[in-house]
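Methods — Computational structure assignment.
A single polypeptide chain was analysed. Its primary sequence is given first, followed by the predicted tertiary structure written as structure tokens.
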Amino acid sequence: MKLEKITEQSRRRYDDACGTAHGLELIGERWAMLIVRELMLGPRRFGDLRASLPGLSANVLTQRLEGLEAAGVTVRRKLPPPASVQVYDLTDWGREAEPIISALGRWAARSPDHDPTLPLSPVSMMLSFRTMFDAGKAGDARMRLGFRFGAETFVVEVADGALTARREETDGVDVVVTAEPEAVAAVVYGGAPVETLSLTGSRAVFERFASFFELPPKAARV
């Protein structure tokens, strides 16, 4: 009996016309969706992606980036001077995957086995704000908060019942939070004391901001 060689390409294909099946062919490989997640707030260098996903080897990262680029999800480009470095970015179509990632995250957070104390990347923390934000709790709040996670800085703005999060310098914000993403998550989602964070500016603004979020209830284990 002749054995059929199973190639990487054949493992990726489901031969199923359903869009869900094709979506898994595009971003269903291990690490692929997390790479897409890490690019949601803008382009990243290869080394930045590796630092944000420490369990991912350079070889697998290269393979996944090549696959995502071939699928039209990501693109390589060179930043203009003075940076002049190669970065990876999402295409406009690739960026449309954010609602998929957010919905999956909200759904999976209901799992009885979900452990919110595990490590978080800075981008993952920012996307969790977008996902778990409750506009009803925010009401007419208007605020700008800066977050410093090591060398990475972000600004989160709440206004008109909406939340935006983007990578930028923290100039002119109401409060700057300096901490690890896990520590911020522990305060916002786990009820840890605010004193575990380093705050510069209005503590009252951050405390009100933290009240806009709540993890969904856990699903019952049958």
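Note: The first strand starts at residue 74 and ends at 78.
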